[in-house]
């Protein structure tokens, strides 16, 4: 079984302990991970541009290289990174998280949400930023989601804020980590939605 990591420093005891759960090799996964919104707009709900509701454009999110893949990153130490065995996203984390945030804002029923980058001109506010972390911290057995958000209102005022959620006590297994990341991502999305609404 192959363990891949980027840094030169090598924490052998911890890597040996994790060797059964972290790998880049092996057969295709039996299932794929995704994010599911806990708050959803009801069927038939909607809004139209030009109404009293604000129009919020949720734009594409930036990510570091470790998240620009279909794998779940594992922070083995402060200087080492691996990927969780058998844990594959159905699409890249930034796209999944962007839609989750958009759906969470939409479910509030207080704004029209658009998530097409070419529709930003009709927006009264835009939301973008960097998804810094959406992975597993082996040292604390925690699923971690961290997002640096940037909000620009209709007058061009820029606000930034960092959001983070952690689910602890999570075993280093694909299904458990996927479920914990979904919980953490929904917590962050709810906080982002509240922040955007407070505009």
Concise structural overview:
The chain has 199 residues and is α/β, with parallel strands linked by helices. 24% of the residues lie in helices and 29% in strands.
The CATH topology name of the domain at 53-68 and 92-197 reads Rossmann fold
Q: What can be said about the biggest beta sheet?
A: 7 strands, mixed
What is the tally of helical segments?
3
Could you tell me the radius of gyration in angstroms? Answer: 18 Å
The CATH superfamily of the domain at 53-68 and 92-197 bears the name: ABC-type transport auxiliary lipoprotein component
Q: For this structure, what is the CATH class of the domain at 53-68 and 92-197?
A: Alpha Beta
pLDDT averaged over residues: 83
Global geometry: elongated
Q: Tell me what portion of residues adopts beta-strand conformation.
A: 25-35%
**Which residues sit in consecutive blocks of at least 5 with pLDDT less than 50?**
1-17
Helices and strands, in order, run as HEEEHEEEEH
Question: Termini distance?
Answer: 50 Å
Portion in helices:
10-25%
Class by alpha and beta content:
alpha/beta
By DSSP, the count of extended strands is 7
CATH architecture of the domain at 53-68 and 92-197, by name, is 3-Layer(aba) Sandwich
Structural description of this entry:
With 199 residues, the protein is α/β, with parallel strands linked by helices. It has helices spanning 12-18, 93-108, 174-197, and strands at residues 55-58, 71-77, 80-88, 112-114, 125-137, 142-153, 158-167. Strands 1, 2, 3, 4, 5, 6 and 7 form a seven-stranded mixed beta sheet that branches.
């Amino acid at each position: 079984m192959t363990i891949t990591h980027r840094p030169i420093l090598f924490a052998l005891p911890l890597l040996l302990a994790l060797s059964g759960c972290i790998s880049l090799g092996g057969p295709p996964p039996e299932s794929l991970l995704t994010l599911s919104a806990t708050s959803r707009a009801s069927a038939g709900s909607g809004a139209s541009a030009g109404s009293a509701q604000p129009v919020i454009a949720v734009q594409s999110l930036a990510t570091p290289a470790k998240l620009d893949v279909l794998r779940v990153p594992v922070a083995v130490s402060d200087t080492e990174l691996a990927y969780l065995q058998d844990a594959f996203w159905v699409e890249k984390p930034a796209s999944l998280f962007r839609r989750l945030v958009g759906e969470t804002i939409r479910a509030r029923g207080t704004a029209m949400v658009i998530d097409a980058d070419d529709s930003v001109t009709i927006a009264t506010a835009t939301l973008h930023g960097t998804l810094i972390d959406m992975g597993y911290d082996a040292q604390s057995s925690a699923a971690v989601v961290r997002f640096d958000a940037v909000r620009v209102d209709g007058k061009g005022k820029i606000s930034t804020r960092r959001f983070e959620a952690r689910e602890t006590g999570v075993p280093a297994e694909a299904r458990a980590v996927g479920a914990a990341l979904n919980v953490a991502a929904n917590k962050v999305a709810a906080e982002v939605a509240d922040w955007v609404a407070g505009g």
